[in-house]
Design brief:
The protein is α/β, with parallel strands linked by helices. About 40% of the residues lie in helices and about 15% in strands.
Length: about 400
């Protein structure tokens, strides 16, 4: 018999705050009533602020981030269009697979899992594309499978240096709302996220930022779509309504989640994720283990993928955590299965939750056969988390 709560340390779906959960506990509503749309107008305004876009639109599709991926492609591209993508983790692999299934001509750059977006190779290929045959560049901002964050501003820079007019697609599923994200400043045309990550909601909403350039492209794009049609969404969203039945309870939760982010302050949210991630990485170092990301410049502040030592199967670490300690760690995906486990520090998370994850990970690693000094990771993370408090005490003493 399980007692207490299930400790959810996966990078998504993330923990749902009690205030958000309570906001969703409402009776069903008439989504065509004359007073239904007004609260949603403010919600769309807040989403634009979250994406950091002034002139773009943010559209909500019942579904997941994957549905928003498909909406982005089908509304702006044509069958046979040439696009540029890199594969360096499970989600960039799946995105490329979708593009191929939808009939795009995909130029693929394969990289080790743990690498970031190949900026120099993008620059070379875009510079060589004198006829402008590449219609879009796809980049996974935060690769959840490997704990790697790529530099979107650098991608935009090489596109501009090549004077290239391709659309810039960004998968921000595990970054938007947690990490710095600048849709307008980085020239992002399509930005995808989902409700179940930084927005701290259950799965069920695919959220898509669309630039004016991308919206213009949707007017002439010939790829078939119906449910995901941009123009239907934009027309209805202007007054807070939807072209089809929306997930009403999730909309209540989304408004509460956006209010929570605004109350904490977006910059403080980013700083909190950076601080929590630093503590987890300090623990990994204290254990004598390595993360999947190839270099510190690529470290993700929303999820850490931890390589298990030789002879220790990461699947055993995860199984022991779930069966013995009622704790869920993220699994290794694709070729990383059995080689890494992941600790998510994303969304509604704090120091106590991360310290619990670290302490339980020590127990699980040891039970799976790793040589771990109990408390080493916890102490290393505590040293990180104590720093602001120590600095504040020193300032007060002065």
């Amino acid at each position: 018999m399980r007692t207490g709560i299930n400790h959810l340390f996966i990078p998504g779906p993330t923990n749902v705050p009690e205030s958000v959960r309570q906001a969703m506990n409402v009776p069903m509503q008439d989504h065509r009533a004359h007073d239904f749309g007004a609260p949603n107008v403010g919600m769309f305004r807040d989403l634009k602020s979250l994406f950091r876009t002034k002139d773009g639109h943010v559209l909500l599709f019942p579904g997941s981030g994957t549905g928003a991926w498909e909406a982005a492609i089908t509304n702006t591209l044509n069958p046979g269009d040439r696009v540029l993508m890199a594969r360096h983790g499970q989600f960039s692999v799946l995105w490329a697979q979708m593009a191929q299934r939808l009939g795009l001509n995909v130029d693929l750059i394969d990289l080790p899992w743990g690498a970031g977006a190949p900026i120099s190779e993008f620059a070379r290929l875009l510079g060589a594309d004198r006829k402008g045959e590449i219609k879009a560049v796809f980049v996974t901002h935060n690769e959840t499978a490997t704990g790697v964050t790529s530099d979107i501003a650098a991608v935009r820079r090489v596109m501009d240096e090549a004077f290239h007019e391709a659309l810039l697609f960004v998968d921000g599923v595990s970054s938007i709302g947690c990490l710095p994200f600048e849709m307008d400043a980085w020239g992002v045309d399509l930005a995808v996220t989902g409700s179940q990550k930084g927005l701290m909601l259950p799965p069920g909403l695919g959220i898509l930022g669309v630039s004016p350039k991308a919206l213009k492209a949707s007017e002439t794009a010939t790829m078939r779509r119906a449910y995901f049609e941009f123009s239907d969404q934009v027309k209805n969203n202007e007054t807070g309504y939807y072209p089809y039945t929306p997930p009403v309870q999730l909309l209540h939760g989304l408004r509460a989640a956006l209010a929570r982010i605004a109350e904490e302050g977006p910059e403080n949210v980013i700083a909190r994720h950076r601080r929590l991630a630093a503590g987890v990485r300090a623990a990994v170092k204290a254990w004598g283990l390595e993360v999947c990301a190839e270099s510190p410049s690529l470290y993700s502040d929303t999820v850490t993928a931890i390589r298990t030592p030789d002879g220790v199967d990461a699947r055993d670490v995860i199984r022991i955590g779930y069966d013995r300690y009622n704790a869920s760690f993220g699994s290794g995906l694709g070729p990383l299965a059995g080689k890494v486990f992941r600790i998510g520090h994303i969304g509604d998370s704090n120091e106590g939750m991360c310290l619990t994850a670290i302490a339980l990970a020590e127990l699980c690693l040891a039970a799976a056969g790793a040589t771990i000094q109990f408390g080493s990771g916890v102490a290393a993370a505590q040293a990180v988390y104590a720093q602001p408090a120590i600095q504040a005490a020193q300032i007060a003493a002065e």
